[in-house]
Write a structure and sequence with these properties.
The chain is mainly alpha-helical. Helices cover 68% and strands 0% of the residues. It is built from seven helices and no strands. The longest helix is centred in the first third of the chain and has 35 residues.
Length: 224
């Protein structure tokens, strides 16, 4: 029993750490801009790849992605989704987005800027879309009927709000990239704002999943 309890606690801590890392990334980007970039906010979080913040940016993404890949859910679908999310996160980290700076070859495969940005945007789209699905659908599932006004009931409300927030943010980013000029994106920082909303929503959902917010009185795995 003690060993089983230790395993459960480890999983809860893993979920919590995933949430914390997700929320830390945009916060650290803002802090970096204030300290090292003369309060000039970059267009997006991904654009920090081309700054001296790159090692932290890539490190947080890779770490979070590895945690997601090794995370084990309740069923095969849960496991597949988190593995794909993790792989997509690695794709975001290793294949940077496009930039105004003309760069012949970037990333570890030495692809040109157009090729790597395509992989980056596809990875990012898949990453956030599956995070929304994970929060809205998978996290809300339960083995037994959910009692109204129970803690699981309120957790599911948070999960769904987070899932919808991520989805709306993703649609907003796509529309901004497709319809907005680079000057518009630089002036409004709309992509950065939407990315921050999505990552905070992602972090909150995993903090709830980790038992930090609205946890059960008794530590269990069935209801989280």
């Amino acid at each position: 029993m003690r060993r089983n309890r230790s395993i459960v606690i480890s999983y809860m801590n893993l979920r919590t750490l995933i949430g914390i890392l997700g929320m830390l990334l945009p916060i650290m980007c803002y802090i970096w801009c204030c300290i090292y970039n003369h309060n000039i906010v970059l267009e997006s979080i991904s654009m920090h790849y081309y700054s001296n913040f790159r090692d932290i940016f890539v490190g947080i993404l890779i770490t979070s992605s590895v945690f997601l890949i090794t995370y084990k859910g309740y069923n095969i679908l849960d496991n597949i989704i988190t593995v794909v999310i993790g792989i997509s996160g690695i794709g975001i980290a290793l294949f940077p987005c496009d930039t105004e700076i003309m760069i012949e070859n970037v990333n570890f495969l030495m692809l040109n800027n157009i090729q790597t940005s395509i992989i980056h945007y596809l990875s990012a789209g898949l990453f956030f879309a599956l995070l929304a699905f994970n929060s809205f659908y998978l996290f809300t599932k339960a083995k037994s009927k959910i009692i109204r006004n129970s803690r699981k009931y309120y957790r599911n409300i948070i999960y769904r709000i987070c899932g919808v927030s991520i989805l709306i943010g993703l649609i907003g980013v796509m529309l901004t990239l497709l319809l907005g000029s680079r000057d518009f994106r630089n002036e409004t920082h709309l992509i950065l704002i939407l990315e921050t909303v999505m990552l905070i929503a992602f972090g909150i959902s995993w903090l709830v999943k980790g038992g930090v917010i609205i946890k059960d009185k008794k530590l269990t795995t069935a209801s989280t």
